[in-house]
């Protein structure tokens, strides 16, 4: 990687960092710091949800599967589209109607504080491993493209992420997510045609691809796996506390629906576009083995992107993948401040709680860095992500989500289902291979992990309804929701204007950077220049629209 690419990475890093830090004064209270005022524009929340989920594995996890297994990686991600559409129709508006700042607050209102306390400790424990698993691909991208040691990359990037997340709160997360979406969309629309041109066009790609490369499923990722993984995505995207924040931070249930639909729509199109580069690289270089295929995406980019654009693509990848880290850090810190510290210090004012949240962000960020350093010793990122999904997805997120719809679920029933599922899943993952000489394949592991909580919750539901159990917890919850008056704060409107303006400026500057790079590009200059102009115009339009609103 040359001096120009490294310079572009540093400039883009500075741009993202400044955008995040520009919201240092936005965290006047818990609602502004952890919910962006509670009236976030649906399109911002939807794009942030997409980037928070998409970036966790696209480049490394799904890119690795695309390189080794082909179209299977696209089939896997199509399950996310289906999940997003269903969430938009049925689940996202339910979350918005709870009027809760966090999922933990909903659990307190609906299932009781004792239940929430146990869920909080479990969530925080799991989230540390989750953010560590998300930080690792970021460092992997840097290692493949620059040669920097992965341990150094993890530490430096982890510190950068925790700083701007701790300072700017949810607005810092949202704005940097939207900026990264624009950058990466522009970059991939340059990478795909250049990659196809590198191997002589789409016909050569299809003819030279390995046998069965375009099959929808294979022996490891079967239709059974797809169904189970689809259920996991439904539970995870709908019930993960970090993603619930995207549904509760918008103004109305209708906006929450749009958040889910935008996510689903993007996952209808993006998997095909994003998975083509590592698939094409399999034809170009079929020799990657072991964990080396985790770098297939970046290796393809290095082959075709003109000078400077590789740096911008890498910068976008780094901070897009970081989105999953900052999202989880923000909500985890929010839970510690709003649902743990506040319980013991109920008279704490907003300033004190925000300070607690920022301190929690830093401490959780340090733990995230430590976990990320251990990922290579856990079997690689694909193994870590899939195992976490199978063991914790249904167990943690389905019981509280079920309680959104059921009058009969209680704190006791939810906890019993969670604990039993976690124990059984952990036994078959870690102990059964040694004690029983038995282990699940990928599809069985995922199906078992998702099926147990569904069966247990359904059984309790049928039993409670047949016995006509009292619904005291649910009735009390309804009263609590009725007491929560929907606040329309001027701060929310001001935050939306500032957030939109910062996004516009960031997008325009990125477009200008791409346009400048087109003048020094030796290949694809016209393509790069055209994309730069489009991005510059988009950023200018956003700025003008915001300015017009101010004048009105």
UniProtKB/TrEMBL annotation:
Membrane topology classification: Multi-pass membrane protein
Reaction(s) the record says it catalyses: iodide(out) + 2 Na(+)(out) = iodide(in) + 2 Na(+)(in)
Family matches, as Pfam families: SSF
Keywords: Cell membrane, Glycoprotein, Ion transport, Membrane, Sodium, Sodium transport, Transmembrane, Transmembrane helix, Transport
Keyword set includes Ion transport: yes
Protein location: Cell membrane
Sequence intervals crossing the membrane: 6-23, 43-65, 71-92, 118-138, 150-171, 178-196, 221-238, 259-276, 296-320, 360-378, 384-405, 414-440, 446-464, 502-520, 526-544
Taxonomic superkingdom: Bacteria
Principal place of residence: membrane
Record's keyword annotation contains Oxidoreductase: no
Family membership noted in the UniProt record: Belongs to the sodium:solute symporter (SSF) (TC 2.A.21) family.
Protein name: Na+:solute symporter
Organism encoding this protein: Zobellia barbeyronii
Phylogenetic classification of the source organism: Bacteria, Pseudomonadati, Bacteroidota, Flavobacteriia, Flavobacteriales
